[in-house]
Specification:
This protein has 624 residues and is α/β, with parallel strands linked by helices.
């Protein structure tokens, strides 16, 4: 999730690109850059490690003269740490082809090896740079000479080479490209990553979302997957990847700029809840099959032999990330692999017991959580190896770990974590599956079924989100409640903890999360008539026990909201039901947390709380 802006027209190109990047900065902010094709064909390129205001000052000190076409990018790193070299736009060897890209090129390592072998030189660590070099090679294959060619012939060659380049790419991408020899044309393509064309008067735009150009035009054309666009000052044409021209209807956007940044949602938190299927899909993409094979070795150095060598797994994290670690502990233990999970701030004594046979898995969205970093240092001092699960390339955690597993969720703006948590869970499920398969704890058939079930999760997330209006209705009915109880068992026990944490974070109410079997050991005493109790009770080995716990709570007056599937609904008696699609018992946390996120959101909305910036909280806790 990064920000793309492209422009062609008669206004000041650099000013429009910079303004667009400022409006897109919520999509990524670790580095940025712009490129403009000058009237003489010279390329103007400026990039920085840092935010757009740094780039703005750099451009002001060395302005470009002329230029009607250009592209810009604000980055959320997925390959290569934040730096000027890794910032977009990227160029080919000749510095004539310029590309900006959102997404992940899954086959970039293979492509890069081929390009290096044929003499190409790379300047960055990114997957994006291969696109520029592939384009250079395709143009060479089409016998583009340095001699003068008619503009229409150059445009035709540019488009043909672009189509051939896109055909070589696997993964997700939104692309915008310019070529210094073709200053009257911007090319764009989309596959699994959003891209929209803005239609102006004598000028046109390309962007990741409409917020980038809403101050200039509200008429847009949305590209679908496997579609290309040729963008000129006075004309936009759309084609399939195969080159067939298609007609796209323009629509008029009714949002204002602030609404556009949030995709039309009222809050970033709600937008990010709805981005969770994409977050899980991006984290899973290219890393799943074959389970137990060498996929993780290429990206993070975790070969099957390495995965088999660890005697146990120790999860370390704080807050929501700790709940992901708890799910991981239960998951690994279910596969017969010794595991533990600890809050990082309370890890000191446990750290002394670790040794070189332990894999410590540190989970942190930002990679800068102070307690987690301190715990990692203690684990390493004791001899353990460390795997970081993080959403932030180049963070301190990545530099202090032996292995790094990036979740590809894009920046999370809302303080209360939602999509980052789902990305962390997806990473944990991937790691567990590969470990179990490598150790023979899953047969080939079982590993295949596990992987196939994981691949279905993004679709099931979308099905779960379709119940938002029902969840909102139930939540509104409890908006005046000041006490909430969340219960579950086994692998969903951490989800009860997460549900309680979410409603505390953004609604400022008292909430408790408990293992349902502990109810009779104290918590049942706080139940009163009408108290909301949210019971996470999907089908599984503990369902009958959960149903009994719910009955005990109802007998004391609790008003029960049950998170169930169609089968478990027959067993659990409740006042309200939120019915989820069915998946395997082990994977249910990837779905059961979603209605709890939405429930907390709508309670906070009814209470008129500051949802994206709850009081007393910060997005990243960088002090101990």
């Amino acid at each position: 999730m990064c920000g793309i802006i492209g422009y062609i027209g008669g206004n000041t190109t650099t000013a429009i690109l910079l303004d667009g990047l400022k409006r897109l900065e919520y999509r990524g902010y670790d580095s940025c850059g712009i490129a403009v094709v000058g009237d003489s064909g010279a390329l103007y390129l400026k990039r920085v490690s840092g935010r757009v205001d740094v780039l703005d000052k750099l451009v002001a000190g060395d302005p470009v003269r002329g230029g009607q076409a250009g592209v810009g990018h604000t980055r959320w790193a997925t390959h290569g740490a934040p730096s000027e070299d890794n910032a977009h736009p990227h160029t080919d060897c000749s510095a004539q082809v310029v590309v900006v890209h959102n997404g992940i090129i899954e086959n970039y390592l293979d492509l890069k090896e081929q390009l290096l072998a044929s003499g190409h030189h790379f300047k960055s660590e990114t997957d994006t740079e291969v696109i520029a070099h592939i384009m250079e090679a395709k143009l060479k294959d089409l016998h583009v000479s340095e001699t003068a060619m008619p503009a229409d012939q150059l445009e035709s060659v540019f488009f043909k080479a672009f189509r051939k380049t896109v055909a070589d790419l696997k993964g997700s991408f939104a692309l915008a490209m310019v070529w210094s020899r073709c200053p009257g044309l911007v090319l764009a393509a989309r596959m699994h990553s959003p891209l929209v064309i803005g239609l102006g008067q004598g000028e046109n735009f390309v962007a990741s979302d409409v917020s980038a150009f809403l101050s200039h035009t509200k008429r847009v054309v949305f590209l679908n997957d496997r579609e290309l666009a040729t963008v000129r000052k006075g004309q936009v044409d759309v084609y399939t990847f195969q080159g067939r021209k298609i007609v796209k209807d323009a629509v008029t956007i009714q949002w204002n700029a602030t609404m556009a940044e949030k995709g039309g949602y009222a809050h970033f938190m709600l937008k990010e809840i709805h981005e969770q299927s994409e977050a899980v899909e991006n984290t899973l993409r290219g890393r799943l099959l074959p389970l137990g094979g060498t996929i993780l070795k290429v990206e993070m150095g975790l070969s099957p032999r390495t995965l088999k060598s660890f005697s146990s797994v120790q999860f370390i994290a704080c807050g929501t990330a700790f709940h992901a670690g708890l799910v991981g502990r239960i998951l690994f233990e279910t596969f017969g692999i010794e595991a533990a999970a600890d809050v990082a701030s309370e890890f000191t004594d446990r750290a002394r017991l670790l040794n070189k046979g332990v894999l410590a898995v540190a989970i942190s969205q930002s990679g800068e959580t102070a307690d987690t970093l301190f715990a990692v240092r203690e684990a390493r001092a004791a001899g353990a190896q460390v795997l970081a699960i993080t959403n932030t390339v180049g963070s301190t955690l990545t530099r202090e770990s032996d292995y790094v597993f990036y979740t590809h969720c894009g920046p999370e703006i809302g303080v209360a974590s939602t999509k980052a948590f789902l990305g962390q869970l997806a990473a944990v499920y991937l790691l567990a599956g590969h470990c179990a398969a490598a150790r023979g704890r899953l047969t080939v058939a079982e590993a295949r079924r596990y992987a196939e079930d994981l691949l279905k999760i993004p679709r099931l997330i979308d099905e779960t989100l379709a119940q938002e209006s029902e969840i909102a209705k139930i939540a509104h009915g409890f908006a005046s409640s000041e006490h909430f109880l969340f219960i579950s068992r086994h692998i969903n026990y951490p989800i009860a903890l997460e549900g309680a944490l979410k409603i505390k974070e953004i609604s400022y109410v008292h909430a408790e999360g408990y293992a349902a079997g502990e109810m009779k050991h104290g918590p049942i005493a706080i139940i009163y008539k009408g108290m909301p109790l949210l019971a996470v009770a999907p089908s599984g080995r503990t369902l009958d026990l959960m149903a009994g716990n719910v009955e005990e709570a109802k007998a004391r007056g609790a008003e029960v909201v049950a998170i169930v599937d169609e089968e478990s609904r027959k067993t659990v008696r409740a006042s309200h039901y939120l019915v989820l699609p069915r998946t395997s018992e082990l994977l249910t946390p990837l779905l059961t947390v979603i209605p709890l996120q939405l429930f907390a959101y709508y309670v906070a909305l009814a209470k008129k709380c500051d949802i994206d910036k709850p009081r007393n909280l910060a997005k990243s806790v960088t002090v101990r």
